[in-house]
Amino acid sequence: MADIELLPHNVPTNTELPELVEDLTTLNLGPTHPATHGIFQNILKMDGEKIVSGEQTIGYIHRAFEKIAERRPFYQITTLTDRMNYCSSPINNFGWHMTVEKLLGVEVPKRAQYIRVIMMELARITDHIICNSILGVDTGAFTGFLYVMQKREEVYEIYEEVCGARLTTNMGRVGGMERDLSSTAIRKIHEFIKSFPPVLRELEKLLNRNRIFMDRTINVGPISLERALSYGFTGPNLRAAGLDYDVRVMNPYSSYEDFDFIIPVGQNGDTYDRYMVRNEEMWQSLKIVEQAINNLPEGPYYADAPEYYLPPKNEVYRNMEALIYHFKIVMGEIDAPIGEVYHAVEGGNGELGFYLISDGGRAPYRLHFRRPSFIYYQAYPEMCKGSTLSDAILTMSSLNVIAGELDA
Amino acid sequence: MLSNQEVAEELLGKFGDQVFDFEEPYGLLTVSTTREEIIPVISFLQEHKHYQVIFLTDLTGIHYPDVPGKEFMVVYHLHSLVHNFRIRIKVSLSGADLHIPTLTPLFAAANWMERETYDFFGIIFDGHPNLIRILNIEEMDYFPMRKEHALEDATRNDKTDALFGR
């Protein structure tokens, strides 16, 4: 990666704010407003139609995942990670599994790694589909949303074929995959690769050079690179501000170094750049899925680590070894090594980190999620300062703050 | 690329015995320091011309009720994007005196992370602009992530280890 050079930005600074006037309007945006996903409360101080300052209240969907995780064996925590970023569950699942594998020192075979890559990139596509199409809805273009939601449905059908679930996938196991890719799943993935580009092109035709869309998004909610780094931005929102930081390239995991893709980088850090970065990332993800499915290696789909890999149910009923290990894992008789590990994956909207401290017991002593949405959202008042209310809604949409991940 | 050895020697040369307990769990350099030195250490890494550790990845707390005098720990994860180098810095605090200087002047990201840590553990960050609870309600009078708060009903005895031969 090249050295970071802070390029001069053509971001308008909001210095032309009015002097503090006496009668500011206090406006409560959320938590029940549809655009705030039902859980973010923004108390905005407004002078006419300009936003002067904002305060947020979050925590309406806080479910104490970090506390619950202290009582659960490693394989049961997967169900908690699903429910964080529910637009891209597989990324969370596999990120967690990779963290545990790093702790246990389990080497995952190539085939499982490739299957994971395929699922993670499909998840990234769905995540960006939702973010971009909802951004269109917030500007008033409902059509594009209808175009691409159908494709999200197809991805969910692929998930269903691979693991049986659609939204909260619980995909994978510590040490590999739960089951191999079926021929139906492979056929469906090939079909998706063929059928998705025309639909994405339709969305691009509708929005990318659309006069209304550009007027509504260019220079809306800008953030400079220095502020973005200080706020801890990662993922598409940092790349839109002009820095090509991507965990997949910097610290490759799960064989990402085998694939050929580029990192789209924006320039101004405004809403339009964030939209365009996500748009290009969908093409890159599709490219990765195509490479992975065409070069899928032969071999086992789970690691040779019977003490940690939860065997499939049909094995348990037929095979004595599997039955013994299944019992031991479920009863928590196999202890983990003592240690602490931090592992990060490139989630749907940034660096998703897992900080795991193990004291040798069946459950983690302490587990902390580094949730990108939690870190984005505190920059929100600064980004919409000086803009109008309708621009504030677009800024929130383009940040892609997922409620479940924000509050965990 | 930076090596852990190089950074550790630099820190030792600058801060002497104020930095200790050098470890490398899974290849990530881990350093412990005291709460008086935490801001100088982090600002030294941040302003270092060569290292450029300009990214605060994570800030969180841990509770160790069995370690007398060091019941709480604050853990910082920092990242140098230029060299792709991560460092973890730990500060132990005693349960009787839960004060640590805030990191908000150096990183804007620390604001909510510190509020979350205060919310969960009750660690007080001196100088924080707005240290109130963030995820739980204001009226809560305890800190839920501390180990003395059991996750389940304490009167339940159907999950004790004795029943499973442990």
TrEMBL record, chain A:
Which reactions is this enzyme annotated as catalysing? a quinone + NADH + 5 H(+)(in) = a quinol + NAD(+) + 4 H(+)(out)
Pfam families associated with the record: Complex1_49kDa
EC number(s): the record gives 7.1.1.-
UniProt GO molecular function: oxidoreductase activity
Q: Entry's InterPro entries?
A: NADH_Q_OxRdtase_suD, NADH_UbQ_OxRdtase_49kDa_CS, NDH1_su_D/H, NiFe-Hase_large
Membrane topology recorded in Swiss-Prot or TrEMBL: Peripheral membrane protein
User: What does the UniProt keyword field contain?
Assistant: Cell membrane, Membrane, NAD, Oxidoreductase, Quinone, Translocase, Transport
Q: What class of enzyme is it?
A: translocase
Stretches assigned to the NADH-quinone oxidoreductase subunit D domain: 138-407
Please give the chief subcellular localization of this protein.
membrane
- Functional note: NDH-1 shuttles electrons from NADH, via FMN and iron-sulfur (Fe-S) centers, to quinones in the respiratory chain. The immediate electron acceptor for the enzyme in this species is believed to be ubiquinone. Couples the redox reaction to proton translocation (for every two electrons transferred, four hydrogen ions are translocated across the cytoplasmic membrane), and thus conserves the redox energy in a proton gradient. NDH-1 shuttles electrons from NADH, via FMN and iron-sulfur (Fe-S) centers, to quinones in the respiratory chain. The immediate electron acceptor for the enzyme in this species is believed to be a menaquinone. Couples the redox reaction to proton translocation (for every two electrons transferred, four hydrogen ions are translocated across the cytoplasmic membrane), and thus conserves the redox energy in a proton gradient.
Do you know which HAMAP family this protein is assigned to? NDH1_NuoD
The record's listing under PANTHER family reads: NADH DEHYDROGENASE [UBIQUINONE] IRON-SULFUR PROTEIN 2, MITOCHONDRIAL, NADH-UBIQUINONE OXIDOREDUCTASE 49 KDA SUBUNIT
Q: Which family does it belong to?
A: Belongs to the complex I 49 kDa subunit family.
Under the subunit heading, UniProt states: NDH-1 is composed of 14 different subunits. Subunits NuoB, C, D, E, F, and G constitute the peripheral sector of the complex.
Question: By what name is this protein known?
Answer: NADH-quinone oxidoreductase subunit D
Q: Which organism is it from?
A: Dyadobacter sandarakinus
Its taxonomic path starts at: Bacteria, Pseudomonadati, Bacteroidota, Cytophagia, Cytophagales
UniProtKB/TrEMBL annotation, chain B:
Superkingdom of source:
Bacteria
**Alphabetical list of Gene3D superfamilies matching this protein:** NADH:ubiquinone oxidoreductase, 30kDa subunit
NADH:ubiquinone oxidoreductase 30kDa subunit domain spans which residues?
A: 32-153
Alphabetical list of InterPro entries matching this protein: NADH_quin_OxRdtase_su_C/D-like (IPR037232), NADH_UbQ_OxRdtase_30kDa_su (IPR001268)
Question: Which PANTHER family does this UniProt record tie to the protein?
Answer: NADH DEHYDROGENASE [UBIQUINONE] IRON-SULFUR PROTEIN 3, MITOCHONDRIAL (PTHR10884:SF14), NADH DEHYDROGENASE UBIQUINONE IRON-SULFUR PROTEIN 3 (PTHR10884)
UniProt similarity note: Belongs to the complex I 30 kDa subunit family.
| Descriptive protein name | NADH-quinone oxidoreductase subunit C
Q: Which organism is it from?
A: Dyadobacter sandarakinus
